[in-house]
Amino acid sequence: MNEQQQMLSEMADGLFAEHGPTATVESGWPAIAEVALDGLLLAEDQGGFGGSWEEALTVFRLAGYHAIALPVVEAIVAAALARRSDGRGTVAAVTEGRIVGDRFSGTLSGIPWGGGADYVVAPAPDGGAIVVAAQAGTLDTGRNIAGEPRDRLTVQDAPVARLEGNPFALMALARVAQIAGALDATLALSVGYVNERKQFGRPLAKFQAVQQALASFACEAAAANCAAMGAAQAMSRGSAPFEIAAAKLRANRAIGTGTALAHQVHGAIGFTEEYQLHPLTRRLWAWRSEFGGDAYWSAQLGGPIVAAGSSAFWSGLTALTG
After folding, report:
1. Looking at residue 136, what is its pLDDT?
2. Distance CA 53, CA 229 (A)
3. Which of 66, 204, 260, 294 shows a CA-CA span of 20 to 30 A to 126?
4. Dihedral (CA of 10, 15, 20, 21) sign
5. What is the mean pLDDT of each run of 10 residues along the chain (322 residues)?
6. How far apart are CA 212 and CA 257, in angstroms?
7. What contacts 99, CB < 8 A, 6 or more positions away?
8. Closest to 167 in 3D by CA, of 299, 320, 291
9. What distances in angstroms separate CA 316 from CA 232, 237, 239, one per listed residue?
10. Residue 131 and residue 91: Cα distance in Å, rounded?
11. Strand, helix or coil at 197?
12. How confident is the model at residue 273, as a pLDDT?
């Protein structure tokens, strides 16, 4: 980790540890703006930090590690796509409707913390991205299984601006980083618990079955972290459609194994909502489906491979990952 990444890590770690999984948008938005995290990926001449995707990965991972209940990740991606340092931005997962000229009629759904946003960046129905003022229509509130706001904005003939980039893919990359961080935190919590909890006169960690379970969990967490790093490095070099697809699919699959083992080694206490395992695993389950589930990213990976034929598989794979 270089000096700039270390500074970002310390800054974000302090913010997230202070607010944690019970933060509120009202208290959190000013805190995000105060440390300028929403401008992390903006160039300095645009009023931002001038950070890279690898540096953003540091912040995204910490957001997942602390199960932060704030739109930090969404604000960073929205500001980068909209290229603006003013206002509070978030990113919608789904766009339904049509654009005529510079006007959009339809719905934007899967909006994280839409109630506190000034603008929403969303995938355009015909490719690329659009930005819509959050006050341009009617907002219906909702929540995911972790209790995080996931809202729906309905607009009629609302003015929009066209943007470059793929907000769906970039948020998928951000979710991979959050998943990696949350898996690390869940693993650390599990290791700590089995070292403290005793059964038959010795710590649970001394039992071979428990050791095997945690070793398998550690492999899944490491795979998610490697996938996140690979995709972030590819984004720093340019676009990364293959790397993001592979990373989100791998991270999604790590969630199933990792959370099952975490709850298994925790026993009954892992099912109590008050215990700190819940904010992590419930977010992991929610993030697995957001911005592309297993079936979606499997199709994104498999479609081009099947179309190219078996003779092109190895050459294409090494070209994409070299």
Report:
1. 95
2. 9
3. 294
4. negative
5. 64 64 64 78 86 92 90 94 92 96 96 92 94 95 92 96 95 98 96 84 81 94 96 91 95 96 87 86 96 95 87 77 50
6. 13
7. 124, 125, 126, 130, 160
8. 291
9. 20, 18, 16
10. 9
11. coil
12. 80
Q: What is the token pair recorded at 243?
A: 């790397």
Domains of the chain, earliest start first: 3-82 (no CATH), 89-163 (2.40.110.10), 167-321 (1.20.140.10)
CA distance linking residue 46 with residue 86, whole number of Å: 10
The two tokens of residue 29 are: 């938005």
Report in angstroms the alpha-carbon separations of 65 from 61, 109, 185, 286. Answer: 6, 26, 5, 15
User: Token digits for 14?
Assistant: 């302090």
- Residue 295's pLDDT is what? 95
Q: Which long-range contacts (CB under 8 A, 24 or more apart) does 210-218 make?
A: 210/265, 213/261, 213/264, 213/265, 214/187, 214/190, 214/261, 214/265, 216/257, 216/261, 217/186, 217/187, 217/190, 217/257, 217/258, 217/261, 217/262, 218/187
- Tokens, residue 163: 């943007």
The residue among 168, 191, 181 whose CA lies nearest residue 255 is 181
CA distances 159 to 117, 118, 154, 155, 251, Å, are: 17, 14, 13, 10, 37
Residue with tokens 């009202």: 26
Alpha-carbon distance of 320 to 241, in angstroms, equals: 10
CB atoms within 10 A of CB 223: 19
DSSP run (H or E) holding 57: helix 53-65
| 8-state DSSP, 267 | G
Separation CA 231–CA 235 (nearest Å): 6
CA atoms within 13 A on the CB side of 297: 25
pLDDT at position 38: 86
Read off φ and ψ for residue 158, nearest 5 degrees: -90, 140
Question: What three-state secondary structure class fits 178?
Answer: helix
Q: Which long-range contacts (CB under 8 A, 24 or more apart) does 33-37 make?
A: 33/88, 35/11, 37/11, 37/12, 37/72, 37/75, 37/76
